[in-house]
Amino acid sequence: MKKIFLLLCLTSSSMTIFAQQGEPEDEKPRGFQKDKLFTGGDLTLSFYTGGTTMGVSPYFGYSLTKWLDAAVSLNFIYQGQKDPYGNKVRQTNIGPGAFIRLFPIDFLYVQAQYEHNFINHKYIPVGGSSTFKDKFDVNSLLVGAGYSSGRGEGNNTYYYLSVMFDVAQLPNSPYVDSYGRMVPIIRAGYNVGLFQGRQRRNRNR
Predict the structure, then answer these.
(1) Which of 28, 138, 158, 193 has the fewest CB atoms inside 10 Å of its own CB, making it the most exposed?
(2) Cut 0.85: pTM above it
(3) CA neighbor of 160 nearest in space, from 103, 98, 93
(4) Any alpha helices (H) in 152-205, and if so which ranges?
(5) Distance of alpha carbon 41 from alpha carbon 62, whole angstroms
(6) CA-CA-CA-CA torsion for 176, 180, 184, 189, nearest 10 degrees?
(7) Residues 113-159: pLDDT tens digits?
(8) Which residues lie closer than 8 Å to 17 by C-beta, 6 or more apart?
(9) What angle do CA 104, 44, 128 make, to 5 degrees?
(10) C-alpha count within 13 angstroms, C-beta hemisphere, residue 156
């Protein structure tokens, strides 16, 4: 999993360097630009046979190019499942993560997100007796695509809706069902570009 995450980072860095080399010299960004900072958060919903996943994920990031964003995130997720025999599983987890979003066009993007979740697990057998509790951690690699509304040149504030899957499919992942199968992860949220209004006013002076 660490190798996969490192590969994502190297890929995004390489694409950034390539994009900058292709720009005219007088148009290349120089140093840190605070108007490329953004923040936001999303809600996670996933419904499948015998289970539900709900969560919230705030994040903070930087636009590396006009078509590539990178951010760090923090996840809070609740998961409830019931097996065919009526036994219940309840999980709550919190964990850091990081993602990249690639925009081939302004209103569509693909996303890859790494997460490391620390999980509190509770198993409740039928009748509620002998409840079992455990704590563990697990990695996830989420890959998917989304739609953004309002994003454009000079504006990084927009609504978005995405569908992703945990392609790692590791045991105990909050994004697989009790049989270890991937389930769709639906996320909707709002991205807020920081300092962009002030930056546009400065350019118009």
Answers:
(1) 28
(2) no
(3) 103
(4) 196-204
(5) 14
(6) 20
(7) 999 999 998 988 887 678 889 999 999 999 999 999 999 888 899 99
(8) none
(9) 155
(10) 27
**Which of 95, 103, 69, 105 minimizes the C-alpha distance to 192?**
69
Residue type, 185: I
In contact, 161 and 187? CB cutoff 8 Å: yes
The CATH number of 2-25+37-204 is 2.40.160.20
Whole-angstrom Cα distance, residue 85 to residue 102? 43
Identity at 9, one-letter amino acid code = C
Q: Cα–Cα distance between 159 and 98 in angstroms, integer?
A: 19
The angle formed by the CA atoms of residues 94, 73 and 137, to the nearest 5 degrees, is 30
Instruction: Give the three-state DSSP class for 197.
Output: helix
Three-state DSSP state, 93 = strand
The residue ranges of every structural domain in the chain are 2-25+37-204
8 Å CB contact between 112 and 8: yes
Q: Which residues contact 79 (CB under 8 A, 6 or more apart)?
A: 51, 52, 53, 54, 89, 90, 91, 92, 93, 174
| pLDDT 10s digits, 180-197 | 888 888 999 999 999 886
